[in-house]
Amino acid sequence: MVDLSSSLAGLLSFVIYFAISLVMLVVFKYAYTFITPHDEWKLVKDGNNTAAALGLVGAVVGFALALASAAANSVGLVDFVIWGIVALIAQVLAFALVRFLLMPRIVQRINDNEIPAGVVLCGVSIAVGLLNAACMTY
Questions:
Q1: DSSP state, 114?
Q2: pLDDT tens-digit profile of 46-81?
Q3: What phi-psi label fits residue 49: left (phi over 0), alpha (psi between -120 and 50 degrees) or beta?
């Protein structure tokens, strides 16, 4: 039978990785809303904008999926943070893909609370996060 001390041997590593993950999620939220021409957080808080909420949540979930893979596959904390930055860049590129290639009016449509635009952005962000996560299994 495994004793308690060996079960908790990885607790410190868990706490460190989890804390860094939470910090990276917050950094991502600020970076993403800074880079996009519309402030999703403000649109959600002040305007009850469902399309903006969908787009932002999709981006955060996509980033979290990739970040989870980075945590699971990294060889250390520095490696984890580097791949977290790669995940952030991938999510920003996903927004650029939607904005410039798939749906050029996405910013206006999000501002106008057009739900289908938010769903497309959400879906692309999650899909990119899944692909990013899979590609981090080196």
A1: -
A2: 888 999 999 999 999 999 999 999 999 999 999 999
A3: beta
